[in-house]
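Record 1 of the preview.
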Amino acid sequence: MGTIFGDDLLYNNRLVQWAEREIELFVKLVKENAPSSETVSALHAASVCVQASLNHCSVLESQGLKLSKVLLVLLEPYIEEVLELNFRRARKLVFDFSGNDEMLPLSPRLASPLSTFAISSDGMLVDSGTRFIFMVKDIVEQLTRLVILHFGGNILTRILKLFDQYMDELIKALPEPSEDDSLVELKEAVPFKAETDSQQLALLGTAFTIAEELLPMVMSRIWSVLNESKEAGNDNTAPLLNNAIDYKDWRKQLQHSLDKLRDHFCRQYVLNFIYSRDGKTRPDANIYLCGEGDDLNWNSDPLPSLPFQALFGKLQQLATVAGDVLLGKEKIQKVLLARLTETVVMWVMSNEEDFWGVLENEVAKLQPQGLQQLILDMHFTVEIARFAGYPSRNVHQMASSIIARAIRTFSGRGLNQQSALPEDEWFVETAKAAINKLLMGGDGSDASEIDEDHIILHDDDDDDDEDDDDEIHDEVISDSDESPSSLSTITTSESFASAESQMLDSLSDFTDPES
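->
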């Protein structure tokens, strides 16, 4: 412009105005002649249009005419419309199975990890995962480099939303705690149900595989372009629209959606375990108030109470199924079993009405044997986690809280816990001995009320583990020197649901926090 008009601002401004009108006309022509906005061809055409237009603007910038920002501002509503309708199309294809038998071409590299779950689950589950990853891949492949650079944050946010909605659909496929037929009829219909342990684990494995293996492969091109731009750090490669998203934040939000599915599974699994049991195998505060009852075999052969023996058997069975369904995915196996154990202990810790309301009732009298049984059950739960080789720090902390509260309840009634409780080492050794006895099918428990098969979990014990046992235990019990087994002074007055939502946010995700 300077060559033609010199420093005459009037002509320069008119030229800019003319150029802006031409861009507005261009954008109008693009909209009028583009394919239908919900089609993948529309997304491809829009991407090519943005790429070519910005390349032309880049050439003009060397002549002093900067129009890239104007072009992007005018094109943004159209790009938003195309993206929105394409993601609606993706949601429909992923979630609507009625009359949709379209075969989706997916490379073996992406299809093979999901196909491993076909044997253990409804074929529709694997089909839904295939549809999800196909649609994301299909959308990403249409994007040109400059579209990724300037609209990448918007696209990443939409993919997060689609994944979160997919997790909501998978949650609907899981049974609710103690479902009955009348409640099932009221639930929103889903094309597949995960009812057995293997089906539910396959569902979790599908979600985990998509989030941890397939999405990173499909999304690598987007992150590569954004990282290159960030590293270059100059105006020519900087996005002109403020919609950037940090990789760590994106991964955190993706993990949050995955955690939502996992926590729902753990909650319904544990509640079904607790409330489907009757009599002496149901976790209940009354088992600690029964004095010389059948559960308190302290004179002959002390064992954990029957509910916790049953829990051990249930986790063993699930670990065996997980070893088959989630073969090669040890990370998710360990974290799922850890979270299930945590959820059981959390139920005890935060159940104010059914557990603590009974145990702390003025009429009830927590006797020394009942206190000993409760403490042994908590140590036994910690030993389950350590024996199986999965993260146990959170179980430690919650067990500590339960023991401390029970001791305060006992002491608050004028009883001397020092004379009532054995040394901490006794609880640890008794809990370990109980695990060995249950694995060998030893006497002392009512086998008819406990899961029949005692299958060894991932037994990673070796010489180093034996040396580490006391160190790990010391980490837990050294919080207070006031009395044996007074592991901590943490208390809770929250409901199970609220305690879970807050505490589980701070606990492990699908990673091993102790690795």
